[in-house]
TrEMBL record:
Top-level taxon: Bacteria
Species whose genome carries this gene: Marinomonas polaris DSM 16579
Record protein name field: 8-oxo-dGTP diphosphatase
Isomerase is among the record's keywords: no
Keywords per UniProt: DNA damage, DNA repair, DNA replication, Hydrolase, Magnesium, Metal-binding, Mutator protein
Length: 128
């Protein structure tokens, strides 16, 4: 099963907004950058805006494509389209009851992320 996912790296002043995946979800108990699956024939950009509205309550006003990471978890193959989100209306929150946090990019390595995110975490930290 291959799933296309739009993911937002929500940035503000040296910090990034992350969320804890529910224990009953795929890769549960690990932190994530908010986002979700693209619907069939939906562009990744549209999916990003929709998912960040649903999950965090923000309206994206400025974003740029960062990169795509493909990863095989064995039970699931994902194609993650990462966007840096640098402008948004509203204050990000956990709209679906998920635990969320603004964390300094320099501290990002102290949070456990899914395997597919490791490269992104390293790159963000190296750029600080
Ligand atoms: N949102 C998000 N998903 C990630 C990240 N890294 C990563 O491997 N994934 C994987 O991407 C897949 C889809 O993401 P998702 O579970 O957020 O999808 P969704 O919001 O549509 O959820 P739903 O199935 O509850 O409707 C999951 O298998 C998840 O494990 C990440 O940083 N953010
Ligand atoms: Mg999601």
């Amino acid at each position: 099963m291959l799933v296309r996912v739009a993911v937002g790296i929500i940035l503000r002043g040296g910090a990034v907004f992350i969320a804890l995946r529910n224990s009953n979800q795929h890769q549960g108990g690990l932190w994530e950058f908010p986002g979700g699956k693209c619907e069939s024939s939906e562009s990744a950009e549209k999916a990003l805006a929709r998912e960040l509205k649903e999950e965090c309550g923000i309206a994206v006003t400025e974003s740029s494509f960062y990169k795509t990471i493909s990863h095989d978890y064995g039970d699931k193959q994902v194609e993650l389209c990462f966007y840096k989100v640098t402008g948004f209306d509203g204050e990000p929150e956990g709209s679906e009851g998920q635990t969320v946090s603004w964390v300094a990019i320099s501290n990002l390595s102290t949070y456990r992320f899914p395997e597919a995110n490791q490269q992104i975490v390293s790159e963000l930290m190296a750029a600080v």
